[in-house]
Amino acid sequence: MYRERIVGSEARGGVSRSDLTLRDPLDRKRINDALDKHLERSSPSTSRVGINGKDKDRVSFPSTSGGKMGIGNGRDNKDARLGSLAKNKASDEESETDSEESDVSGSDADDTSWISWFCSLRGNELFCEVDDEYIQDDFNLCGLSGQVPYYDYALDLILDVESSHGDIFTEEQNELVESAAEMLYGLIHVRYILTSKGMSAMLDKYKTHEFGRCPRVYCYGQPCLPVGESDIPRSSTVKIYCPTCEDIYSPSLDIDGAYFGTTFPHLFLMTHGNLKPPKPSRNYVPRVFGFKIHKP
User: Fold this and answer.
1) What are the start-end ranges of the E strands in the chain?
2) Torsions phi, psi of 291, nearest 5?
3) Residue 51, pLDDT above cutoff 50
4) Cα 136 → chain centroid
5) Is 241 exposed, middle or buried (0-12, 13-18, 19+ CB in 10 A)?
6) Nearest CA to 269 among 238, 249, 246?
């Protein structure tokens, strides 16, 4: 999943992004070709330099032939040289403009943090962005180092801290660091969303219905909240909880339910009591030829 990230991010710190993103030789060749084109576009071509050099030679050694015909040819050559120089200057300015635009777009990509990138991936819409200050506080990460392999490297990747381990790690180890970073972020996330800042971030998502709506007909599209069936990682995938019917449903997302936990939706509704909807006033009644089915 990490390979989808734009290549501009490898200029920033953190884990060696080239080791993580360029796993496929075809991807590596494509990036190298793109870089070569960018370098060619950023600097004047050698053919232009050669033409300008010839023009300078012609200017330094004017024609010695006399007569009106010689003077006229000199003027024509001068006009042609001036026109050629103007075209070359315009081309150089256009090349410099393209290079500046490319540099600006590259710098914008570099400004994207790992957390912002991770939360923007398709399928990760349920996650909110955890503050860097929260992650940097060791107290908030108590006990996680024993649950996550490559803990220190994964933490550096999340915080975009420069690390040189990519030069000594194998491709398989870099993949493990990537997976460990996703797992570590999920375990930090489940703690963060129980704080006031975390609930505020989840509240914004709840108001915009980013967690989905209840599929039950008589809940009338009630917005749902993410919930896990277990607090143990890799036990089950995330579910959505409907505050109206108080039941859970399976979204089409392959996210670990432990990254949201069993507590969040209920503590959220206790904190924001005004958001708790009334219980459904209507339930489905099975009928046969219009008659209710007798329950034994």
Assistant:
1) 225-227, 239-242, 247-249, 287-288, 291-292
2) -100, 140
3) no
4) 21
5) buried
6) 246
What is the per-residue DSSP string for 111-134?
T--HHHHHHHSTT-TT--PPPHHH
Q: How far is CA 51 from the centre of its chain?
A: 45
| pLDDT tens digits, one per residue of 72-94 | 445 555 555 555 555 565 556 66
Report pTM: 0.64
**Pairing state of beta strands 225-227 and 287-288?**
unpaired
User: CB-side exposure of 15: number of CA atoms within 13 Å?
Assistant: 30
Token pair, residue 119, equals: 């939360």
C-alpha 125: how far from chain center: 12
Identify residue 118 by its one-letter amino acid code. Answer: F
Query: How far, in Å, CA of 8 to CA of 99, rounded?
Result: 15
In the chain, % of residues over pLDDT 90: 53
Residue 205, Ramachandran bin (φ over 0: left; ψ between -120 and 50: alpha; else beta): alpha
What is the rounded distance in angstroms from the CA atom of residue 15 to the CA atom of residue 37?
A: 26
> Which CA distances in Å does 74 have to 65, 69, 83, 86, 145?
10, 9, 14, 18, 80
Residue 281 in tokens: 């006033």
Residue whose entry in the numeric block shows the structure tokens 């050629």: 84
Residues present in the chain in total: 296
